[in-house]
Amino acid sequence: MKKKILSILLSTVVVSSLAFAGCGASKQADSNTDSKQKETKEKAADGKYKIAVMPKLVGIPYFNASETGVKKAGEDLDVEVIYTGPTKADAAEQVKMIEDLINRGVDCIAVAPNDPAALKPVLKKAKDKGILVMDWDTAADKDAVELSVHQIDDKEYGTHTWDKLVEAMGTDEGEYAVITGGLSASNLNAWIDAGIEYAKEKYPKLKLVTERIPSDEKQQVAYQKTLEVIKAYPNIKGIIGESTPAPLGIGQAIQEKGLQDKIAAVGCALPTDSKPYLEDGSLDTVILWDPVKLGYLTVYLAKAKLDGKEIKDGMEVPNVGKIRVLEDGKTVIMAPPMDFTKENAKDYKF
Known about the structure:
The chain has helices at 11-24, 33-44, 61-77, 91-103, 116-128, 154-169, 186-202, 219-232, 245-257, 271-279, 291-306, and strands spanning 50-54, 80-83, 108-111, 132-136, 147-150, 174-180, 206-208, 213-214, 236-241, 264-267, 285-288, 316-317, 321-322, 324-325, 331-333, 338-340. By secondary structure, the chain is an alpha/beta fold. The chain folds into two domains: 11-152 and 291-339, Rossmann fold (3-Layer(aba) Sandwich); 154-288, Rossmann fold (3-Layer(aba) Sandwich), CATH 3.40.50.2300. The strands form three sheets. Strands 2-1-3-4-5-15-14 form a seven-stranded mixed β-sheet, with helices on both faces. Strands 6, 7, 8, 9, 10, 11 and 16 form a seven-stranded mixed β-sheet that branches. It is elongated. It holds the Pfam family Peripla_BP_4. Residues 1-21 form the signal peptide.
């Protein structure tokens, strides 16, 4: 990491420490993170932290909302935030952008990986450079990060989604399908895996008609895939959409076909985007959390970590609330999932 001189009075000390660091850099690539974070804290005394937050992609409403929270936290905490990501859900592009952030000398990189395995080497490189590496929204390889910020508990979210599908179907038997974002997205896969396993025990008469269907984080692709599902499986009773554009495409197809009374649809989406489909029954329930708060929480915890503060279970985070910290000490759960329906969607602004 680039280092700044604290002050004229401390210049001799800092220059000496820099010389030592330069001589030993190659030998210290795997030295303990606490020492490196101490250097980061020293840097912060003479300037603002640079905290980079990378979504899976930019330009979709969900990550636009998260950006609002990130920027608000930057203002409140007096840190420099860099919100940057690819324009499509592309892990290779994320790798290139992380390389650039490393070269820019940021203090923290918090990333929502499109493919955790693909990002592992570059995140390790960042970590070896003394950069605080975190994930948010979507889990990275657990060995690559020092803090993992989850919006909800994956198992809780998955089982809740399947319960809402059965509730909307009005029966616990029949055919259903799952349309997801990207097949390598770890958070989406965790929710779907949890839901499918739960259904095997709780709803054994539910029949998943095909493997999870990718929509590439695009509403139009989800719309087209839904039309294909409806045509291929005329008896289908329910569709789950995981990734915020997916339920919108599902709702669009159901609305177009006039199948609101025949096909139940639930999934992960913002209430403002879902409102037109919720109002006419093309979507029954969408399940989410506040992405603005998630963005805020990510920056807040990044600064706390850079400051050397302990992230504790039950701690109160301004503008967010109390958080859970799991036994591993580095997995943070923001909040339980929230349900949005035609009755309450109008009450939210995200």
